[in-house]
Specification:
By secondary structure, this protein is α+β, with helices and mostly antiparallel strands. The relative contact order is 0.15. It has helices at about 10-20, 30-40, 70-75, 95-110, 125-135, and strands spanning about 1-5, 40-50, 50-60, 80-90, 115-125, 140-145, 150-155.
Length: about 160
Amino acid sequence: MEIKELREKDISAIWKINQQGLPGTGEVSHEELEELLRLASFAVGIFEHDELLGFVICMPPGTQYASPNYSWFNDKYDSFVYVDRIAVSKQHRNKNIGTLLYDFVVEIAMNISAPVAAEVSLKPPNPGSMRFHSRFLFEEVGVLHHDTKSVTMLMRPTDS
């Protein structure tokens, strides 16, 4: 397995894996994924023999990204690495791919002394994702309510 930067040619594979993670990952089009890659501070995937197994897309503070979840962090914090989405293909789950991706995110965040920001769905609930984030020492810093869903806002401090 190899961690590589995501490129425009990977968008179809990213979209397919993202769809497998719904509703937790949030629905996006190919065009929206292209925009996410353009805005991202970094976007990487784990590949095996050129097959994308999982990915993470992270945003820096201060971009023009229109996500209300991202905006919540952007309004409250000056420094962070925002995990916009992380997903692993169904056939490769429970093989530590998500852990490898988060290890990569945490290392970058530590190198720039920034906390990691993420959110997990409360309504509908996503207990697996909450357990996963808990293992990475994320702490709840707020709750954001949308029309039909709610998310818990999480931060992993730089000194964790």
